[in-house]
Amino acid sequence: MIELHILGTASARPTSSRSVSGSVFACPEGLVVIDAGEGFQMRYSRQRSRMKKEGEPSTLRPNRIVAIALTHGHLDHTWGLLPFLQTLSLDGRQQSLTVYGPTSPAILDILETDGIDARLPEGTASAELLNQYRAWFGLGGTSSNLGYEVRWLLGDPKSNRWVEFCEDASNLVWHDAMPQPEAFTSFRMDAIPTQHSVPSCAWQLSRKKRKGSFDREKATVAGLSQEERKMLSEGVDVERKGGKVFEASQFRGPSRPAISMVVSGDTAEQSIQPVAPVTVLIHEATFLDNASEKADAHLHSTASGAARTAMNCNAQHLILTHFSARLRDVQEALSEAKEVLGNSCGLETANDGDRVRIDEDGYATFLKASASGWVQHNLSHH
Ligand SMILES: [Zn+2]
Ligand SMILES: [Zn+2]
């Protein structure tokens, strides 16, 4: 089972009920924090207490965090990162974690030619992540200051070229492809290029289709030899001397489908090209159709634009988030998206604290935060 905790659903300006961006992806191999806007650590710990209070499994233990993945450098997505790392340090964390963030090819080029102290080209956006990484290093965000290893990576999602700040940010190491979190073996994460006013990406967390498991009990009942079992489990049919045949397929449980979530960050519509089938797309919907020009000008999406993106990438389900403080009623966003989607795709709007879950068979459930725990909505009814 995989799950996403959506802990902030406002756009840049928070409201009384919506905080800025930040989500936590949970899978059996660990947790990935996706964006950490201002106050992220408070929201994280509140979600944990809430899970505990409702008797939910303690999957959000901070020592399970393997990575923090940023979608872009705007502060509503990043400003809570360093305080969060510092709290992990105060909690006595030992495990290493990796921070990932997107930058431009131009920034990578100057780092490659001029080295770690390269001067930023004139006109670089103040929200450039290299700027922020440097500020965070200066404010104590290095492995020796924090007491646990933090691998800092910056990369260009398009070319998949990545650079790592090593030895307390005194040295650069280059990677031809984005290194996966060390704990990930069957899961993987990929930076999907998006379109925004600064370098940006969506994050896809996925697991491939898996073969069903070998049915040992059936093999025992059938009285198979060790060698016959081995053949069947490797997919080879067994034919005995007398002509009796055992088919490998009959000793396999049902296969498990590929599952994935894509979390968008800020982006213009229809820019997401996922690397694996999308079970659930969590997409920004800053504006309504009446502000579509504004959405285009600032490279944000409308609710209907998010729906077009979902159609384009064949997402089975769409969750809308990152709402403008001006939006009075999310029902409007919902109906504009619904207009585009019809019944082809499950659809919900997110509030802070909501969860999205995909089980082993690929079925998705939306868990809406309420005063008393979470209320389940089945997304997979069509
Ligand atoms: Zn934003
Ligand atoms: Zn932004």
Would you kindly provide a brief summary of this structure?
By secondary structure, the chain is α/β, with parallel strands linked by helices. It is 25% helix and 27% strand.
Characterise this structure:
The protein is an alpha/beta fold and 382 residues long. It folds into two domains: 2-209 and 260-378, 4-Layer Sandwich (Metallo-beta-lactamase, Chain A), CATH 3.60.15.10; 216-251, no CATH class. It contains eleven helices and 19 strands. The strands form three sheets. It has an eleven-stranded mixed β-sheet with strand order 8-7-6-5-4-3-2-1-17-18-19. The longest helix is centred in the first third of the chain and has 14 residues, at 40-53. The mean pLDDT is 95. Residues 72, 74, 196, 266 line the site of one zinc ion.
Count the strands?
Answer: 19
Mean pLDDT: 95
The set of bound ligands, ions and cofactors reads: zinc ion
CATH class of the largest domain: Alpha Beta
The CATH superfamily of the largest domain bears the name Ribonuclease Z/Hydroxyacylglutathione hydrolase-like
Fold topology:
Blueprint: E1 2-8, E2 22-27, E3 30-36, H1 40-53, E4 65-69, H2 75-78, H3 81-90, E5 97-102, H4 105-114, H5 129-138, H6 143-146, E6 150-156, E7 161-166, E8 171-175, E9 187-193, E10 201-207, H7 216-221, H8 226-233, E11 238-239, E12 245-246, E13 259-263, E14 280-284, H9 292-297, H10 303-312, E15 317-321, H11 330-341, E16 346-349, E17 354-358, E18 364-370, E19 373-378
Helix pairs in contact: 10-11
The structure holds zinc ion (2 copies).
